């Protein structure tokens, strides 16, 4: 009962909290909005396809998109509007994603938001303290920067996207996604764009720098993400988490 009341209040306080999908009905593709995963790759791919469809040059403004062409919606609304739409999500090892959130939201900012002050984060906080505090916040309280990825892209216990791209195995996952789009007679997302491998390595190193006890706590806090997106073979290699991916039952993945 309390959780239901809190969610209703939270929708008023943070109206876009659960809007985690970019929906492009004209091309029958949607992609997840997951901060600090590199999700701009999938979003920009949607924009590129929409630009080509509209005959717009790469220099043109994106303003033409934000009406019917590209909508930011919740998982429930996405399923109501188009239950069979091909949906893509780019996910990341939760530990290195947490390191990226620390880098982007703490290290690279002059000030931090009032909301993050309420959460207990401060400018100058160590990454260890940041990770400990993030682990203490439940998905119900946390914002999208530190909320578990699985909670943001699931609906009624089921992962919504049919195509899960892992940052750690992105080259092979991207090609599988293109094949899945082709079998559905959809626009080709094209080759994998260039990615910033330097910052990815920085985030990995930052996560490696944590004490073992903190890394264990991170894995426990984000256990649902690891269970949903990473195989047991990859789990044994964490925290780096680089390895092959099991795509055989992506659409059937559930959150315990």
Which parts are unreliable, with pLDDT below 50 for 5 consecutive residues or more?
4-14, 235-252
- Name the shape in a single word: globular
Number of strands: 7
Round the Cα radius of gyration to an integer and report it: 18 Å
Portion in helices: 40-55%
The major β-sheet equals:
5 strands, mixed
Keywords: Transferase
GO cellular component, one term: membrane
GO molecular function, one term: sulfotransferase activity
Protein name: Sulfotransferase family 2 domain-containing protein
Topology:
Blueprint (H helix, E strand, L loop, with lengths): L1 H12 L7 E4 L4 E4 L7 H15 L16 E3 L1 H7 L4 E6 L2 H14 L6 H6 L7 H10 L12 H4 L1 E2 L2 E2 L3 E4 L3 H14 L13 H12 L3 H10 L1 H7 L2 H6 L19
Parallel strand pairs: 2-4, 4-7
Antiparallel strand pairs: 1-2, 1-3, 5-6
Organism: Stappia albiluteola
Protein name: Sulfotransferase family 2 domain-containing protein
Keywords: Transferase
């Amino acid at each position: 009962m309390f959780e239901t009341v809190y969610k209703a209040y939270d929708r008023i306080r943070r109206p876009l909290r659960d809007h985690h999908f970019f929906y492009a009905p004209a091309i029958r593709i949607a992609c997840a909005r997951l901060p600090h995963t590199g999700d701009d790759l999938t979003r920009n791919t949607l924009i590129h396809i929409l630009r080509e469809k509209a005959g717009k040059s790469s220099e043109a403004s994106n303003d033409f998109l934000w009406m019917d062409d590209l909508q930011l919606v919740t998982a429930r609304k996405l399923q109501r509007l188009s239950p069979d739409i091909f949906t893509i999500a780019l996910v990341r090892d939760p530990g290195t994603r947490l390191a990226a959130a620390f880098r982007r939201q703490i290290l690279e900012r002059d000030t931090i938001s009032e909301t993050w002050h309420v959460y207990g984060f401060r400018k100058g906080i160590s990454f260890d303290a940041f990770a400990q505090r993030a682990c203490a916040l439940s998905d119900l309280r946390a914002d999208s920067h530190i909320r578990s990825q699985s909670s943001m892209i699931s609906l009624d216990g089921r992962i919504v996207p049919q195509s899960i791209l892992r940052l750690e195995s992105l080259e092979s996952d991207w090609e599988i996604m293109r094949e899945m789009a082709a079998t559905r007679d959809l626009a080709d997302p094209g080759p994998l764009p260039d990615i910033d491998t330097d910052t990815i390595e920085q985030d990995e190193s930052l996560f490696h720098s944590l004490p073992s006890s903190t890394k264990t706590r991170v894995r426990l806090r984000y256990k649902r993400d690891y269970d949903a997106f990473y195989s047991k073979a990859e789990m044994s290699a964490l925290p780096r988490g680089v390895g092959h991916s099991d795509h055989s039952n992506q659409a059937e993945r559930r959150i315990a």
